[in-house]
Specification:
Elements lengths: L4 E6 L3 E6 L6 E4 L2 H17 L30 H20 L1
Antiparallel strand pairs: 1-2, 2-3
């Protein structure tokens, strides 16, 4: 398993290592290597005491406030032209950013 760690030199205390995505896992060490070793140990320990599960949560579309807008442009004859204008504008902005 790979984790991304933000490693900060926090002089004079040493280093602070924060596992990205796990904000409650912040480790201190006198050296970089000590901080990273502590991170390895903490992550391993946490994973040994845990498990990852996937939940299937039913979604009731009738309660979704955005569903009343779904398909509202389905029979609009100008919709394709509108989408083409948006795409052209995006290309124009992309070109401006490159310059």
């Amino acid at each position: 398993m790979k984790v991304n760690v933000l490693l900060q030199n926090n002089i004079p205390e040493g280093y602070v290592a924060t596992v990205l995505g796990w904000p409650d896992l912040m480790i201190r060490g006198k050296t970089e290597e000590e901080a990273l070793d502590k991170v390895r140990h903490a992550v391993t320990s946490r994973l040994q005491q845990s498990k990852v599960v996937t939940l299937d949560i039913p979604f009731d579309e009738s309660n979704d406030p955005w569903m009343k807008f779904a398909g509202m442009w389905e029979n609009d004859p100008t919709f394709d032209d509108f989408m083409a204008e948006i795409a052209a504008y995006r290309r124009e902005l992309d070109e401006q950013e490159r310059v």
